[in-house]
Specification:
The protein is built from 14 helices and 19 strands. By secondary structure, the chain is an alpha/beta fold. α3 packs across α7 and α4 runs parallel beside α5. The longest helix is centred in the middle third of the chain and has 17 residues.
Amino acid sequence: MRVAVGGIVHETNTFSPMETTLGNFAERWLLRRDDIVATFRGTNTPIGGFLEGAARHGIELVPTLFAEADPGRPAPAAVFDALVAELGDRIRLAGRLDGVVLDLHGAMVAEGNLDCETSILRAVRAAVGADVPIVAQLDLHANVSHDMVAAADLLVGREAYPEDDMAARGNECIDTLVRIVCEELVPKAALHQLSFVWGANQVTAHEPMRSAIAALHELERRPEVVCAWISTGFPFSDSPAMGSSVTVVTDNDTALAQELADELGAWIEARRDAWFAPRRTTADLLPGALTEGRFPVIFADWMDNTGLGAPGDSTAMLRTFLDAKLQDACLLYMVDPESVARCHAAGVGAVVRLEVGGKSAPEQGSPVPLEAEVVAVSDGRFRYAGTIYAGLEGSLGRSAHIRFGGVHVILVSVREQPLDTALACSLGLDPRAMRVIGVKSCVHFRAGFESWAGAIHVVHEPCVNNPLARPLSYQHLSRPVYPVFDGSNRPAAY
């Protein structure tokens, strides 16, 4: 078998001030042909899973184009259209193919295009014709549309959050593609769109989400079911499909797929209130956490998470740490290229005057003036040590480790949430030695931190993603989606 592999990935925050240019794709991943294989072989990524599955089945994978940018606002139409055209051309020029596997996100929006994944899938279909099966892996936070489901032979969604099952789902894509080609499997998918978009209670190893995944797995054990998945949705993408959903795929039985999707959807709808948690700040929770004494205690800022398209330079948590005069505390990461540059210029051991954070938008808070010691500087290159992206090299651009009193801060130049401790350790900071840790992340950090944390608190600090700091005005939803819209379709704070 010859199977083409590629993808275009972006989690688009239509409210974000952070741009998404072709340069942003190149800054993360803009790979062609053999560079795709060299980058992802042996890694816990979707393409790493494709490569592993292909090797097991003796499949020749034909790499084409893979492009991914960090979450941000919609890409310009010219950038998106050029990437789609190149992907289609490279697949078309690959010669005879038995299938295509794609890494997509499911919540990508570009200027003038509110359903990018459908456009990508249709372009690939035009390149290969009607008879070559197309299988794509989607993120847990996809906003799944009916057109998206119809445009692929099979969509496979992730089932874990933190999303450390990327390679496993990539293997599943290959296994199912082999069944389609060699065993005459005829996937028929049905989508059930839920009436809400999931809140912060999404950790699949914990209740209440653990029960939802258990119900999903019980459904998947039915012999007629090829696969099924729950998409929690991405709330910061103003698009018609925005919201949570259930997708079920059967072997050539669309009616049964719809029946089962509706059944699981009704089970989830009946428990809707369980998927949401109270909104609290670090200042609200810090005194109680210090009294409780379950160290290290981690405060996870869901709103200024760069994985949601936030700038990553909100200063509220840092101010709370400083006001409390904490000792053995650290913050991961503050995106601030200007302060990083000053640290590199001053050198290790210097005490440098900085205005930390708060430079991207007023909602992020004002910069924090500090006379901080430069503990370490680096080019920001490291290798992921946790389960997410295991084996992959990363870079957050020029970085620095600063200390003010008992508070340590890792400053970076490139936006990414802390998935594990590798970058901090490369700068001489071991978070395991801290008593209080702040991370700009919601869930993914758990893959590298939860096993040794004493306590974890999810907090919501002021930033561009927080509707308490800036109302988010949705214009394109196709249905009421709680809590973004109430039953009368009037805007409400998410």
